[in-house]
């Protein structure tokens, strides 16, 4: 028998495929999968695409010290090796309240939250996913700035939510555009389907921009105003909050909601400490605590208790702040290297190519002429990866329906300054080539 | 104004409640929440209820050695502190293939799976939850043995699945009962809604029983036979597999499906090593790999990479097997203590009280006369917790609709032999009191 015959016979009649859920259909074809596949297929490329954090500043020494402490006394060590609770370690949650008070430049008393409003998750990603689960029925609406964090777009697709984008600029989401959109939804009679406004408030992934200080209170007020028959949850994703290099110190959106009943604040130790411990957290309005815990109870009934205690130790001993300072110093150099390289390499293309200057985070958002597409199937992407050997994230992944195709996300997370300079030079060559 | 007035006014008109998803409704009122609340309200009780593992044998020394190795070389240490992949560390997955080959008493070659069929999760719980997500639409059917692992019943409720129970006995689920049930579903024309058969195949939580060796192949064959228009997935939850104290060495259900296209094998390091690292895994039929990874990509895009590497080191260095041996020796003593105490304390109640003898795991399943209810609201539970100061898990939690109310799950996980003896004495007093 020939191969063709064999193939015809091969799916044994005894094993048909499983029949999947609607949710499985919705969670297919994620941008992140393409991206990772591209990364694997192009290992020889300089990566301006990878979402990894800087290797050099990962806390090897601090982790060693913290582990030594955690395992020093067998009696307490065993507690850390045991199951914790679904919401997470009290020790870490208590430390987090102090830490938040510092970030918010206030006192623990003024902060006015209690430990039970904090839920520790597997990265902050898990918090985003759980909130989507407990809020969205298929067809419910999430408002987002455009572009936005593409993994969250995948989460929203995965629960069958409809995404409505609101325009932004260098100051983040535009207040008047948000108001117009909410008003329109009200006029259309579908405000009842709007469950959430999602914003990456600091040094956004992918644009690097932050929501301007003077837009913050108005945004919270708008969400409150349009929360008539039910509360529209404002999910403030502050993943990059602590990676601030210059520019103003911005108050959180969360702090603009003094009753803490409307805004969820999501943060993570992935960027400021180490993603390998997968520890993030949410500060939740009281109404959301039990729903989130119930869902997490089903998902895993608690993230790594040991890792939570490791981070508690690092905070408790005062090691964290110095570490973050060092991390920021290092990223600042890398950001500066990227900005300088962009200015230099694109000096002849000032009309065609533009970018935002980020004051923190890991990303620079680059726009090229409209006619130049950047997607995985574009000529530019092919040339960049195959000829120049440099990879970026196509900007269209960061729009729910690939609305704009002439942008890209550049990361200075993983390369060192020399690598960044070389990467930008290669990128400039690619763009110049494709513009011809 | 009096308190009542204040309460009437207190929900500020500016902050109505969020409007939750259907899924949030379904994930409310979980047994585990009641149980944890009871545990917290009764801290002075001896706990035969807690699902914790033994404290004494938690691997403090091994963890210390493993961490030292992981952090020894800064270059590799940084890799472990970085993000991993969604599916998990290649290093651990390679070790797991070797480990599985040993458990299955075969060679890596004979085992015939590749690394990509292994997915590492946050405990094995996360794998169970993800499988439920990708398989069940509301109203779809899961077959389970009754009683079964109550947290998974919560997961099924959370996705709106319908649970159909199949009778079991000391040999696990009954083959003829399973066949009758499948045939009935076929006759009713709703076989297309049956997505999964879930079985805890070794030393079940809650009954302590295993599926008999001679029932294993017939069960797999039945599932294959009734997988006509789509594949019914057999989820083999082997959480307690490695905690074997005596009795026969049982082949996995997974090994009865030599093409590995029908059975998912879920295992965990929570019971045999340390739950604090939250590391479990699944061996998946190829058809399920991408669906599971896509969903996990949304949920957290990877569990703790550092913890995965810690366990890889423990396996790689050959430390794991000795550790499991020690853990089993210790549990065996505790199981023996519980069985001896039961025999002694209930010697006058031999007609009324019965239990299964477990050959592994952490649990003994006790039945009392039908008229004696064991639930949270029963007289027995109140007397046990308030007067005798002992806690157990009411058996009805382990049935989807609390079908039977005269059973209880006793755990020898956390107490030492003296505590176990005292706990059983108190329990016997409580039962004797309530039988009067
Ligand atoms: C904007 C944003 N939010 C959340 C996350 C989730 O990260 P983690 O789960 O590691 O906290 C990321 C990671 O890249 C991110 O960029
Ligand atoms: C039968 C069974 N399956 C799965 C689990 C999940 O445990 P883990 O997520 O720690 O692997 C448990 C834990 O108690 C269990 O009893």
UniProtKB/TrEMBL annotation, chains A, B:
GO molecular function: 2-aminoadipate transaminase activity; pyridoxal phosphate binding
Region Disordered, residue ranges: 1-23
Boundaries of every Aminotransferase class I/classII large domain copy: 44-418
Top EC class for this record: transferase
Gene3D superfamilies: Aspartate Aminotransferase, domain 1, Type I PLP-dependent aspartate aminotransferase-like (Major domain)
Signal peptide residues on this chain, from the entry's feature table: none
Assigned EC number: 2.6.1.39
Protein name (record): 2-aminoadipate transaminase
GO biological process, one term: alpha-amino acid metabolic process
Keyword line: Aminotransferase, Pyridoxal phosphate, Transferase
Top-level lineage group: Bacteria
Obligatory cofactor(s): pyridoxal 5'-phosphate
Transferase among keywords: yes
InterPro entries: Aminotransferase_I/II_large, Class-I_PLP-dep_aminotransf, PyrdxlP-dep_Trfase, PyrdxlP-dep_Trfase_major, PyrdxlP-dep_Trfase_small
Pfam families found in the cross-reference section: Aminotran_1_2
């Amino acid at each position: 028998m020939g191969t063709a015959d064999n193939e015809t016979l091969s799916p044994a009649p005894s094993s048909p495929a499983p029949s999947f859920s609607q949710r499985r259909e919705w969670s297919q074809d994620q941008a992140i999968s393409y991206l990772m596949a591209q990364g694997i297929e192009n290992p020889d490329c300089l990566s301006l695409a990878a979402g990894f954090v800087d290797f050099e500043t990962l806390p090897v020494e601090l982790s060693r010290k913290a582990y030594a402490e955690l395992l020093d006394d067998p009696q307490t060590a065993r507690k850390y090796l045991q199951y914790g609770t679904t919401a997470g370690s009290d020790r870490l949650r208590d430390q987090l309240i102090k830490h938040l008070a510092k970030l918010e430049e206030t006192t623990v008393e003024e902060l006015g939250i209690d430990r039970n409003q904090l839920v520790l998750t597997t990265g902050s990603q898990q918090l985003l996913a759980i909130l989507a689960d407990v809020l969205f029925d298929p067809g419910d609406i999430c408002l987002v700035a455009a572009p936005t964090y593409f993994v969250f777009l995948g989460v929203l697709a995965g629960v069958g939510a409809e995404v409505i984008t609101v325009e932004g600029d260098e100051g983040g989401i535009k207040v008047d555009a948000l108001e117009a959109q909410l008003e329109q939804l009200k006029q259309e009679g579908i405000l009842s389907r709007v469950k959430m406004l999602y914003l990456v408030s600091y040094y956004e992934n992918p644009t690097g921009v932050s929501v301007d200080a003077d837009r913050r209170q108005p945004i919270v007020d708008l969400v409150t105003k349009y929360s008539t028959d039910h509360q529209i949850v404002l999910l403030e994703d502050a993943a990059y909050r602590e990676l601030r290099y210059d520019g103003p110190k911005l108050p959180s959106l969360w702090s603009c909601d003094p009753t803490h009943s409307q805004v969820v604040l999501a943060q993570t130790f992935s960027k400021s400490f180490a993603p390998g411990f997968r520890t993030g957290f949410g500060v939740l309005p009281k109404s959301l605590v039990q729903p989130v815990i119930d869902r997490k109870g089903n998902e895993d009934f608690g993230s790594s208790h040991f890792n939570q205690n490791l981070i508690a130790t690092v905070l408790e001993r005062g090691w964290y702040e110095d570490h973050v300072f060092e991390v920021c110093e290092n990223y600042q150099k890398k950001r500066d290297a990227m900005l300088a390289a962009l200015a230099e390499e694109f000096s002849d293309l000032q009309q065609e190519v533009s970018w935002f200057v980020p004051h923190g985070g890991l990303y620079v958002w680059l726009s090229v002429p409209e006619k130049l597409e950047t997607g995985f199937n574009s000529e530019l992407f092919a040339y960049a990866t195959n000829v120049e050997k440099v990879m970026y994230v196509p900007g269209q992944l960061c729009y729910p329906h690939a609305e704009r195709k002439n942008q890209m996300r550049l990361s200075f997370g993983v390369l060192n300054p020399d690598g960044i300079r070389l990467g930008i030079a290669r990128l400039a060559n690619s763009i110049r080539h494709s513009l011809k």
